[in-house]
Fold these 4 entries.
Entry 1:
Amino acid sequence: MFKIYITETTLKSIILSEEMKPLHARSYLYKLLKQQQVLSLTVAETERIKSHPEEVQKNPSALYILDISPSEALGIQRSYGVMCLSGERPDISTLIDTNDVHISNEQEKLGRGWDSVLDSVEKLPSNALLLTDRYLFAFRQPNAGDGLANIRDILDQLLPQQFLGGDYHVTIVFDDMSKHESYSFDEIATKLNRIKTQLRRDYPIMMEVLGITPDCSIYNKLHNRLIISNYFLVEASHKLAAFNADRGTARQMLIPMTLFTEGSLNGISTPPLKAIDQTITTLRDFSKSLSQLTDHNVYLYAVNGKRMERCMSMRNRLLK
């Protein structure tokens, strides 16, 4: 859940400076502070984060604005995948969407494929990914959309080169009943886990796979094809198995979005953050319900390539 943690002295300084300006001249940072949940930190609490930066992962989707140097803030952000800014000159422009839209067509080249589509979001800090597409593994032929190949390309672009926060979390949700007839759930889970080694990252990756059925309570709530991280989402209007290398497999729009738009900060439109929250809330509620679920045949579940008889709680930190 998106929150803003800010050193209290920094917060007071920003508010005082901004409220001296006329309404039309106030910054997007000020508007963000007025719209979102803000928790102020004492100097002592700020010092604790400085001494124990791993604590930012307790709130993996938060924005931290701390009374620390720019180099210290950048170090925390790069190491733990949580957005951290120095209070000296906080710049939230990376959270304001640039309205990139990519339109693909069958068999037509679109830039470098996923490499081009994800350019506007791949540099944002991240500590987890969540991919949902009920028909992700409906095809095996590259021209029709090989789900495994597309997952590999997506992860290769989005997983950070550096991460010190323990396991990086990846969760993939699809419709097990709609997969290609030649696939088994176990094969998909095993091959997704094998992709981790192909990515050559020097940190551990937790690969969580959920195959739902039409009888699952969340089935109808996961119609949209999304890639979600803590500070962005990417929506595909038709399918995430969008490319065969750099050529489209379907006519569709692919839209990467950060958390806010200028319109949403000005109060005239809905922030993309709401779409992230809707999907995460759906999966979080499902995860919480698992311990009381009487019929565990409505889904299949695997972690790191190993099929689990039951899931008692999903592991992705975005759902905590």
Entry 2:
Amino acid sequence: MGTLRLVVAAVACATACKQGSNGNKDVPPATGAASAAGSLAGAVESPASPPPAASRPDIAAPVAAAGSAPEIVLDDLYRAPGGGALFRAPDLAVLKQSWSRTFRRDGAVAAIQYTYVDGPRRAQIELRFPPHQPTAMAARALAEASAASVAKQMPDVKTLGGRELPLPGGSAWGVGLETTLAGAKVVIGVVAITDGGDAVLVTTVAHAELYEAPAVKPVLDGLFAGIQVGRKVTSAPSLAPATTLSGVFIRIGPDLGEVHVVQFDPRGWALLDRDVGRVDLDAAHAARGGALSRYQVAGDEIRVTDPRGRVAAFRLNGGDLEHDGRTYCRSASTDGWTLRGTYESPTFVNTTGLTGETFTANASSRYVFAADGTFRDSSTVSATLSQPTTPGGPATPSVTSGSSGGASGTYRIRGDRLELTRGGQTTSLPFYARACAGKPSNSMVVIGGDLYLLDDD
């Protein structure tokens, strides 16, 4: 089995999921490996063929599934709807420098594809997350059915065999195949990782010599190490604090647009700033490998210790918190709120270089909300670069500006989320407002981690 090299691999679910999960028809055909092989052949024949462009998807709206955990789509983390599968991308310099990443949906299946190009050589790895199934799926049946489907779609494919794989994220079975494209040997790995009715399918299509390449092998190993399925999906354990806290607290800073947010969980953990609302505690724990802040309460003092061991001391002040003389107000209950007016989030940058040039930039993001549940958004940006034409001479400014405006849509505030629906698509953003001394205010709100101020004019 030396040629199998299945510390890698990928998936194309379809026939595989149908045969391995009681004939579920919601899973699309197995096209991933075949299309990847076509791209690979194109790269052999045309070395200038570019890799797919990387994408940065928004946080998806929660989707109902077997469990209660919402789907999370981030560059470094994916959690399937219901929480039955989780993938943490490896933090590797070679991955960031040499690989491109795309995220897409094939019907009900989410797919993450990584592509590496080295002249005429290419490696493509695709992770697919089929929906939770009502009956248990066997990893071997799923992998073998998927591999058979791949073999039917490609010319002159030879099956190398299959075996059980010792992966930490669930029961795993891999099947290896090989073929020749444009005179070059290509190895295909198909791996199914399952637990109960949950599965992740991984398919790798690559030139044979790349499997051990320094730019490829660590990525393959890291991708598999980051997959958790079913009961293997980890959650944050309880630290059993003597006094438990819960809730979100918000501080507005003195600088333009400055906002700080802290969230306490009864299990003894604390999330800070942009993690709040972007991920829940369990997802953050998985993404950071457990390296999160934690708190302890002694009297009216709350000591928050970050992963580096640095301690920040908060004090209780009624229902709010104090830290370094600044107030963190408890977040308001915003469920069902209706907003009226224009909310703006401005930013400003000003720098001066050693040779006398100056650079300033202004950007603004706006939401206009109406009481009837509709909204529209827009953004503007302006940048000025002033440079002396001669050393010590007067500066000559050059200005660049632009703006964009989206079509109108509808909005709804539910819990701590602002749901924006436009063109049949819904985006869910973290949404918080302060209730200082227990008095809710809508003059300042936090949307997607940024501070928005109500324009009273």
Entry 3:
Amino acid sequence: MDLQSFELLFQQIDSLWIAPEIKKRQISEKLPVDFKIHRCLIKLPKGIAPIIEFNEEINLQAEFEAAPNENIQAGNLVYLHQIKKIKNVKAPIINDTRVAFVFLYWNNTQYDVIFDFTPNIPDDIIAKEQKEIWKYGEVIGESFQKILSENTIAIQLQNYELFNTIWFCGQLLPSFPIHYQKLLLK
């Protein structure tokens, strides 16, 4: 996609969903003063108003590889040091049904956009079997993996003086819960 097409796509996403949602939140005073969009998931279920989620509001199920010697139980909080790698992210679902979506995220230089409207395309245009194929899980998983890596770097930078006084090792990272997504073992 060339730059002009991407800019047009982003303008349409902004004018259709993002700007109205931000305005609604500003009016209801539910938008933090320092609000910035790092990630945005726009769920587009059939017959229901779009659902727009920003940053930590995004709640997708992910499959990940646990770090060595970590025994993670379903339903428990997962900490940064317990994850070796996020492998895959499951499709957005509402009421047990996969929904069309637009997902955009900041990659430190620009916004990347992933979208899939196939769940909303009539069955006579695309066979139901084709609509069930989910091919974006690894790409979205990679974006969340980058977020984890960035969190790791941010922790190191916040604790720069401490890390300069002791030998650095990955296990010295403080533990904090990951609240922006549910993580599931495969």
Entry 4:
Amino acid sequence: MLEILEQRDHTRYPLPVISASEELCIVEAMEEGEVAGHAIFTYTPECVRVYACTADALALFDGIARTVLFKAALKGIHRGEFLCQDDRLQKLKLTDEHGICADIDAVLNGCQGCRHAEN
């Protein structure tokens, strides 16, 4: 079973240099007791900044990135900046070509009503 959980032990990853006003967080995707991917990110009142987002499978990468955005939305943050360069972010329509997610709510609700769409 796949779980994406917050990791409180920050010693296993190289960490970015951040300002005192940022809150550092790590989430890990755990599959059968093994880490299958992770994200390192910070919060400010205006933005979530993602420094690393890793996973081999596209669906897992998407799940980890969306988890970070969802956690930010729960804090009332509406903008995301992915500082990690990965073409999959644009392919998944999570960011623009500069790694910016200008409206987290729009990304998370992008398929709202899809099940009601006509075929």
